[in-house]
Amino acid sequence: MQLIRKEILVNGKSTDYDNIHYAAIRALSEEFQGCRYLEIGTAYGHSAFQAWTALKPKKITLVDTFIEERQLPFILRTLIVLGCTAEVEVLKGDSHDILPKIKDKFNVGLVDGDHTGKGSLRDLNDAWNLLEINGALIFDDIIMDKLREVSREFKLKNDIWEYKEYLDWKKGVAIMRKH
Asked: For the domain bounded by 37-141+149-174, which CATH number is listed?
């Protein structure tokens, strides 16, 4: 069984709705090989697997509450099966408590955690502060729960030199580049 499928583009639209993050991550893959990758909202690790496959980051930092006992063992075993050689850092808890304490900087980040307006804006701000200049931040699910408004508000208040929305990708994704 193949864990990660390659998306197929038809008329510029992804036909692989199960792997939305993979399309976004692959769009960054040439520029960010060997990067430091931050993920907020890991769940069962599918985006982390996709990040490993496309980016081959030297460091993967996963931030999640990992409420279900089986989540973390599944993620770590699957990364091993995928041949992951990255340093994997797992930070268990609420992103609002964890992110302000992180000292590292990252090249690529994925925000898919708190889906409330206020909470997602806080995750975006905290992740943005941890992003290197020229880094990329992926914000997921922008067409649900008014997160597109949050995304656009965030864009207006920050030094973003590139901003793209992909609304045809499952529940929408915005990719932002830091200047």
From this structure: 3.40.50.150
The whole-chain average pLDDT of the chain stands at: 86
Q: Give, as one character, the DSSP assignment of residue 18.
A: G
How far is Cα 33 from Cα 58, in angstroms, rounded to an integer?
9
Of residues 27, 18, 15, the one with CA closest to residue 168:
15
d(CA 108, CA 131): 7
pLDDT tops 70 at residue 16: no
Q: What are 68-83's pLDDT values in tens digits? A: 999 999 999 999 999 9
Cα distance between residue 35 and residue 108, in whole Å? 7
Q: pLDDT by residue (tens digit) across 90-107?
A: 999 999 999 999 999 999
Q: Residue 20 has what pLDDT? A: 58
- Predicted TM-score (pTM) of this structure: 0.87
> Phi and psi (nearest 5°) for 103?
-100, -25
Burial (CB < 10 A; 0-12, 13-18, 19+), residue 156, is exposed
Question: How far from 32 is each of 51, 78, 79, 158, CA to CA, in Å?
Answer: 10, 22, 19, 22
Contact assessment for residue 49 and residue 37, using Cβ atoms and an 8 Å cutoff: no
| Among 9, 149, 4, CA closest to 78 | 4
